[in-house]
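Q: Could you fold this chain for me?
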Amino acid sequence: MRDFAQVNELPIVTREVALGASELLEIDACGFDKMDRAILAAIIDKFEGGPVGVETLAAAVGEESDTIGDVYEPYLLQEGFIARTARGRVATERAYTHLGRARRGTMDAGIDVQLQLTDWEFRPKNQWSSELNLEKVPLESLDQLAGKKYPVQGLLTGQFHGRGTRAEPSLTGLLDLADATVYSVPFNRLRGQLTVQPDEVRLSNAELRFFGPGAEKTGGAGIVTGSAAYRYADESLTADLVGASLPLANFGRIKASGVPLDGQLSFHLKSSGPVRAPLADGSFRVVDLQVGSEIIGSFGGDLQSDGKLAKLQLNSAMSEGAITGGATLGLADPQPLDGKISVRNINLDPFLLTALHLGKFRGHGVADGDIIFQGELQHPETLTLDGNFSRLVFNYGNVQLENQGPIHLTSTKDSLKILSLALKGTETNAELTGSVQFTGRRTVAMKLNGSVDLRLLSGYMTDVAVNGHADINTSFEGTLDRPRIIGRVKLNDASVRSADFPTGLSNVNGDLVFDANRLFFNNVTGEAGGGQISLSGTANYSEKPFRYDVTAKTDRIRIRYPEGMSWLVGGALRLSGTPDGGLLSGKVQVQRVTLSEGIEAVGSLTSNTASGSTTSNFLRNLQLDVEGSSTPDTRLEWPGAHLEAESSLRARGTAEHPILLGHIHVLSGDLYFHDNRYNVTRGDLNFSNPFRMDPVINFEATTNIQQYEITLNFTGQASKISLSYRSDPPLPGNDIVTLLALGQTSSASTIHGGVTGQSGAAGNSGATALLTEAISSQLGGRAERLFGITRFRVDPGLAGFGTATSGQNLGARVTVEQQVTRELTVTYVSNVSSSQQQVIQVEYNLNRNISIVGLRDQNGTFGVDFKFKKRFQ
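A: Sure. Below is the predicted structure, expressed as structure tokens.
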């Protein structure tokens, strides 16, 4: 400084002398020379603010690393412009500011400012200019700088040029505002030419886009174009805007109202005057207006504002029905709203979903009427709807209803009031009045009187089929969570059927009595499974979860459960629990058990019940504890078997995986096995496996073929039955098999077939037996079910006929047997190739040891046999 003063012949080093010397030496106000600034600029611009090592930094600025470390770095550290880290040197916020750069988070700004100073002061009349480059700068940070809060948020990017004086600044530039909101309305991007003057701010050639690239909805991207200007002095706004396909759901006030509206809004609006009292003229169109999840149509209208009131006229363009009306909105606080909408043949489904707060509506309704709405827009909770309908046609649960007289109801954001509603339809003539509150305590106060078609419940309980009608006189009080119902419901010829239960109820009559918290069954009777049933018990609906305790009594009812089994029982069953599960208990007397697919099907029930195929949560959690005993004449039946038995059983497990425990003891009976009738001398089915319904079977049955008495023993589990046999007089095992399959021993078959043809006869006999079983298994079951006969059999050849020695032709034989009573059986055998070869046999059992057999053989000879059976020990 002294040298500079001496050269300029200045006796004293003043402030001006020091500033002049600093300017000549390129030393700035912080005392940094050209190399100091080069180091800071290298860290910021070349290494993105650091960290960077000293060797790398020295190479970047062209200076020795020792010089940087010993000369420049200590002062920069001392003044707080750089910092040392374990990874290297980094620039601080002071370095960014000193070089005219700004950085904060994702924000990046470059500032170049020139100021005119008077005596080192920036006075109101001093000129200034600046170049401002912003990238993703949050508007909230600019609000802090300006000291004002604007209803705009977002990330600002742009290039701006400022000039003027301190008292009258101006700014121009290209604006790009992304991911922003204006008055709580979100949008994707706003672009335009921004001009800021001392008295106004103007945005020209603006484009506001609601959606990002690739996210546009069908019909438009949601764009507003035009220009707008705002004057500070009188807070007035001038705008000329055109909007296309704007989403209604994005408007904050619609969201705040709680009304689920959506659609695409297009408009043209010209406005001038104060922001809160504008003069405006415009038109609009809403395409695919959506209420809830239903699209109800498109609408258009005109809008005018005189600065005090905004008026709207509405018209519609719908495929069915029409909506017209108008509304006025006060522009001064609290912005009162008043309007009326007239509907003709309008679809009510979306409005019912919204008003009743339902997730899904399984009906359909149309109406004619007027809806008046009013309230304060700044207080959405005050908005009310008042509906008066002259016509209502309503279909729910396949029941069509129509109104009797006018319908009057009111609705708010939180409540619904029904002032008058009378409906008439098939077996329905009811009146409903009252109110429901959907917030707070969610109180309810409703009255329902009249007759109602119970099919209406099917629309609400989709898994249950309900029919009949009921006379109702009830009132609903309390809350939606804990309702209190008082009154009586009289059931008339009602029926209920659920896929979760093996049998349904029909012809249900009686009274359901409500006493505020519980439901009582009063003299409720019905029919189920071909028998009469009476119901008693209670249901508590005032607490969560819903609880019930119902007892059913019957003298005789058929239950088909599980699949493949039919039970004819009488007794009492009690069902208690919640909608998610319960307990079925009680005692029943078993009168008959029928296995529709035969005894072999019992084993298959294990895999069926273990498959877990049900989708019902109730059945998966329904526990069983049912005790069953037999009546004196209990019968156990399956195709080809009629047995008398005594039993003691207990059903445990769940309805999805039922388990039987106990035993069935066969006293007597007949069964058919391989076309022979057997007399059951003893038999037991023991259900002892607590994990699988796979009983242990032990049966003994006898039959007479020619002069031999054959005894068969069936033993083992039902899923894997083993068979053993013996004869009296004794025969070898292969002779017993031949006798059962062919009706004669192997020696007799050899004699009839000739010596030379022994092997061929035996082979033919085996093939005949196999073919007989194949044909009979395919045709027998169908013929027996079609004609109601006991047994049907087809043999491809007559044994003893058509051999080489006889010279006769082979022919097929058809056997038809009918058990007329338990004691009387008629059998008819015919050769289909010869009408003369017919056999008719009638057998009458006097008791289990004595029988009388009448026979007409294939030769036309008649005979009577008396059979006596006695076992010698």
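A (continued): The CA atoms of residues 755 and 761 lie 9 Å apart.
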